[in-house]
Design brief:
Layout: H1 3-19, H2 23-35, H3 44-48, E1 56-60, E2 64-67, H4 68-83, E3 89-95, E4 98-99, H5 100-110, H6 113-116, H7 121-130, E5 136-141
Antiparallel strand pairs: 1-2, 2-4, 3-5
Helix pairs in contact: 2-4, 5-7
């Protein structure tokens, strides 16, 4: 086995372990893949498995909150682009990511501040999502290669 193949296998194993780890590990891995494309087809099924995951998470810094599936779609698009895969990624009815301030404003508008004051941002995101109070849109990620 060549050194570069061994290195690719080691990187792949690292990502697989992260996807089998805690929610925090999964989120950090997806955010990493979204920023830095990883041209390894073996990782695709691990990311695709998260396209239905509606768990709340921190989607970015400065803190924004959203669903794991939103991060997974972005990471998968970057992997697809790195591999030259032109397949579109489509997610339906995805609540928009929100900042802490946006979540707070929505809570105030609903008059729930006193009732929900003890909740963290991810919990607020879920409450607002489940009440239909977050803006929702379809996410369609297309082939992004400028070379054609």
């Amino acid at each position: 086995m060549s050194n570069s193949q061994a290195q690719r296998d080691e990187e792949f194993d690292y990502f697989v372990d992260a996807f089998k780890g805690s929610k925090h590990d999964v989120v950090i891995t997806l955010r990493t893949l979204k920023r830095s494309p990883y041209p390894e087809a073996r990782i695709i099924p691990y990311i695709e498995a998260l396209l239905d995951d509606r768990s709340p998470c921190i989607t970015g810094i400065p803190y924004r909150y959203g669903e794991i599936r939103w991060l997974a779609a972005g990471a998968l698009r970057r992997v697809y682009d790195a591999l030259g895969i032109r397949e579109s990624i489509v997610l339906r009815d995805v609540p928009a990511t929100q900042s802490s301030d946006q979540l707070g404003d929505l809570v105030w508008e609903l008059g729930k501040h006193d009732e929900w004051i003890h909740l963290g941002a991810e919990e607020l995101y879920v409450k607002l999502r489940d009440l239909g109070q977050l803006p929702v849109r379809d996410v369609v990620l297309e082939w992004a290669n400028a070379d054609g």
